[in-house]
Design goal:
The protein is α/β, with parallel strands linked by helices. It has 15 helices and 15 strands. Helix 4 runs antiparallel to helix 6, helix 5 packs across helix 6 and helix 11 crosses helix 12. InterPro entries: Ald_DH/histidinol_DH, Ald_DH_C, Ald_DH_CS_CYS, Ald_DH_CS_GLU, Ald_DH_N, Aldehyde_DH_dom, Aldehyde_DH_NAD(P).
Length: 443
């Protein structure tokens, strides 16, 4: 039956110890109103997937009324737990309240309101144009759910990147298994303790754990997989999915370049680029990764950036309540090594504190294509500038590398904007701003 707050207000969390999993699994999996399982192996994962599949096969997720009720319950969860969601993000990333609300909580609320508003139109049968052969026939396209969907979340936006695809999967009439990131512990705990109180726990199930649990899940057959994260794990997810010809949505990262020419208002440009780069301490897949511009624009940008960063974070960014921290020691060490390898290129920042997992907002100047910082996605608050002579050299530089997730172009000249539009290829192209395109609804 669909969940209600009354039905699941007393839902417990079952935690299964790996050592005793085999002897407890049968009694645990059959208990009502438990939808989160922890510390288990292949046998257990197959049981939880079978539970979701039985729910889907029963037909309970297909009626529009069920979908709408789950979505409304999910919206109510967001609205009733704003503070708890913000607190979880503070614990995981020391995320400021403004960033937590803007980039996760309100983003989720606005998205699900849009989903509820459009639900009837999205699920309605479509009557396509008919040719001469079918002129007297009824031709109808029905939008059927896939079945059992696996959503593997990410630590950098641990609520948004798990719950956003959940809403879409529910709206499409699927049963869903969620795997929160183990690195964002507070957010995962929030999900485990809160979600069962609002949604149908037979149709939406949570699996806690780390790489071992994710690996075991990927051995199961799913009907669709959503994964957000790094390219290396993305390849593993994709390879696992191909064994069952399972369709996959991969939201990966990459080195997203920024081109700046000499026609822009450098103060406005610096604010928009630095905001996009340093929200969440640069731990954003669509953050600007590096800048391409002439040396004269580089000098102007660095001067403007010093003022902008002082305005954003004060004289000592480490004391600012608006600057996040790095998620864990491993990622901190990786970023520290990048700064240490570029000591002679530091134009702004370059400071770090291992105990606080703090990396100061850092700008590197006169970076070359062969520098270590240019080898992989940075995913942190370090912004290198690579000097180029003009837009044509910038386009050549971009096209010699993997297609970026996002390309940012800052120029008031329409011919330069057209040049990048026509002669480059990227997941998205944003002109004279950063990040904000993510809020566009493209159907």
């Amino acid at each position: 039956m669909p969940a209600s707050s009354e039905q699941h207000a007393a839902s417990d969390v079952i935690v299964i110890d790996i050592e005793s999993a085999n002897e407890n699994i049968d009694t645990t999996i059959n208990m009502d109103n438990h939808n989160t399982m922890n510390g288990n192996g292949y046998y257990f994962c197959s049981q939880i997937v079978n539970k979701a599949r039985d729910t889907f096969d029963s037909g309970v997720t297909k009626p529009i009324e069920w979908r709408r009720k789950q979505l409304k319950n999910l919206l109510r969860m967001y609205e009733e737990n704003r503070n708890a969601m913000v607190d979880a993000l503070v614990k995981d990333l020391r995320r400021s309240k403004m960033e937590a609300i803007l980039l996760e909580v309100d983003y989720l609320i606005n998205d699900i309101r849009n989903t509820i508003y459009n639900l009837d139109d999205w699920v309605a049968p479509v009557k396509p144009p008919k040719g001469l052969v079918n002129m007297l026939d009824d031709v109808v396209i029905y939008n059927d759910p896939y079945g059992v969907v696996l959503i593997i979340g990410a630590w950098n936006y641990p609520l948004q990147l798990l719950l956003l695809p959940l809403a879409g999967a529910i709206a499409a009439g699927n049963a869903v298994i969620l795997k929160p990131s183990e690195l964002a512990e507070a957010s995962a705990k929030f999900m485990v303790e809160t979600l069962p109180k609002y949604v149908d726990s037979d149709a939406v199930l949570l699996v806690e754990g780390g790489p071992e649990e994710t690996s075991e899940l990927l051995k199961q057959r799913f009907d669709y997989i959503f994964y957000t994260g790094g390219t290396s794990v993305g390849r593993i997810v994709y390879a696992a999915a191909t064994k069952n010809l399972t369709p996959v949505t991969l939201e990966l990262g990459g080195k997203s370049p920024v081109y700046i020419d000499n026609t822009v208002d450098i103060e406005v440009t610096a604010k928009r680029i630095l905001w996009g780069k340093f929200i969440n301490a640069g731990q954003t897949c669509i953050a600007p990764d590096y800048i391409l511009c002439s040396r004269s624009v580089q000098d102007k940008f660095v001067d403007a950036a010093k003022n902008v960063l002082r305005e954003f974070y004060g004289e000592d960014p480490q004391k600012s309540p608006d600057l996040c921290r790095i998620i864990n020691n491993r990622h901190f060490s990786r970023l520290q090594a990048l700064i240490d390898a570029s000591k002679d290129k530091v134009a702004i920042g370059g400071r770090y504190d291992a105990q606080d997992k703090y990396i100061s907002p850092t700008v590197l100047a006169n970076v070359s294509a062969n520098d270590v910082i240019m080898k992989d996605e940075i995913f942190g608050p370090i912004l290198p500038i690579v000097p180029v002579e003009n837009a044509y050299e910038a386009i050549k530089f971009i096209n010699e590398r993997e297609h970026p997730l996002v390309l940012y172009v800052f120029s008031v000249q329409s011919n330069i904007q057209q040049l990048f539009t026509q002669q480059t290829r990227s997941g998205s192209l944003c002109v004279n701003d950063t990040i904000m395109f993510y809020g566009a609804k493209v159907l």
